Amino acid sequence: MPLLTEPNLSGRGKREDLMDMIALVDAKDTPFTSMARKGSKPGNMYFRWQADQNPGPTIGGVVDGTDVTSGSYNNFVTGYRKELANYAQIFRQTVRVSKLTQDIADVAGIRDELSDNIAKAIIAIKRSMEATFTSDQYGQQDQGGSTPYLTAGIQAWIGGDNIGTGLNIGSGTTTPSFVTPDASIVSGANASALTDATVQGVLKSIYDQTGKYKSFDAIVGTDLKRAFTALLGTTALTTTAYNGVPSGGGTATNLVAGATKVQTFQRDAAADTFIQSVDVFQGDFGTVRLHPTTFLGTVRSGTPPVNTTTLTNRSAYGIVLDMDLVEIRYGGNVAQVTALPDNGGGPARLVEAVAGLVVGNPLGFGKFTYTAA
């Protein structure tokens, strides 16, 4: 009987105690696609909408008794309204599991391997949409089956990058212009240079275009989110001191260390919890709610820049959005699951979605494009 004790079985017929659980830590949020409203189904892969502006004030009066001349008429339709457009894009994932995996294998934590693969494919499509819609991808038309339809991402709209692609009609020299002004776009080497005055400047520029005090949602990379939180923290004093000044006057010879940084805390001194986080920035011209993401990046490269199939994460980027001006148009089901033929290799499924981005008016947005933390 001692030979039958567990240490002497040497694995023969012994099954390990594997818990019926799989730990999933990758549960990243997709704030843009979650917040954007669902628009109407596009009637075509190329769809259009209108952007409009209101006329500015007129200074001066009218002489009593004068007639209206032919050159004094205004056309508030053609003079202030433009047509914008974008393409829809096909998002696709395919999955397959072998017959043994599906019918015989008993995998811990999974009730059905095919269903689990389908669920992950749907998540992959939503993440692909998130990365695409928040990117700088140019819109692209299907070229006779050789290249796919591509929808223009929000970063391509903020700043007028779509000019020349046939999507953002109206350049900076055309009246009316729907190109986001430079003051609404912040660029720099390091996100650590972010100040409250910088954020206020972006909100002011948006207000100058829209005239509305709004609540904005900002999709921010993780490093830019840390830069916002740093606004609560250290402040470097700019005072300096010199020694070694020659007698009788002259130029100081030695620069000594400046003043030390001062750390401020946004909490009571008696509190036992340290809280150092900025989730909402309230300025003179609007309120910004911060939504950190790991899917914000760029897909263009080269000179001139062209679309690639590689997403480069930009953790120091951020886009300031008026979600009332954003919608996603889905064609049919958001994620349609179709059974593919099983030719012996096992059951397969196609998960596919068609969607395109609508940016109502690029004047109501802002952007941060820092190159590093």
How does the SSE layout of this entry go?
Blueprint: H1 31-35, E1 37-39, E2 46-52, E3 81-96, H2 99-103, H3 113-133, H4 154-157, E4 185-190, H5 196-210, E5 214-220, H6 222-230, E6 241-243, E7 254-256, E8 280-283, E9 286-292, E10 297-301, E11 306-313, E12 317-321, E13 326-340, E14 348-359, E15 366-372
Parallel strand pairs: 1-13, 4-15, 5-9
Antiparallel strand pairs: 2-3, 3-14, 5-12, 6-7, 8-9, 10-11, 12-15, 13-14
Q: What does this molecule look like?
A:
By secondary structure, the protein is an alpha+beta fold. The chain is globular. The strands form 4 sheets. The protein has a 6-stranded mixed β-sheet with strand order 4-15-12-5-9-8. It is built from 6 helices and 15 strands. It has one domain (25-51, 79-234, 260-372): phage-related protein like fold (Alpha-Beta Complex). Residues 1-9 and 18-22 have low confidence and may be disordered.
Termini gap: 66 Å
> What is the overall shape?
globular
Which topology does CATH recognise? Answer: phage-related protein like fold
Number of helices: 6
Strand order of the largest sheet: 4-15-12-5-9-8
Class computed from helices, strands and strand pairing: alpha+beta
Which keywords apply here?
373 residues, alpha+beta, phage-related protein like fold, six-stranded mixed beta sheet, globular, disordered N terminus
What's the gist of this structure?
With 373 residues, this protein is α+β, with helices and mostly antiparallel strands. The protein has helices spanning 31-35, 99-103, 113-133, 154-157, 196-210, 222-230; strands spanning 37-39, 46-52, 81-96, 185-190, 214-220, 241-243, 254-256, 280-283, 286-292, 297-301, 306-313, 317-321, 326-340, 348-359, 366-372.
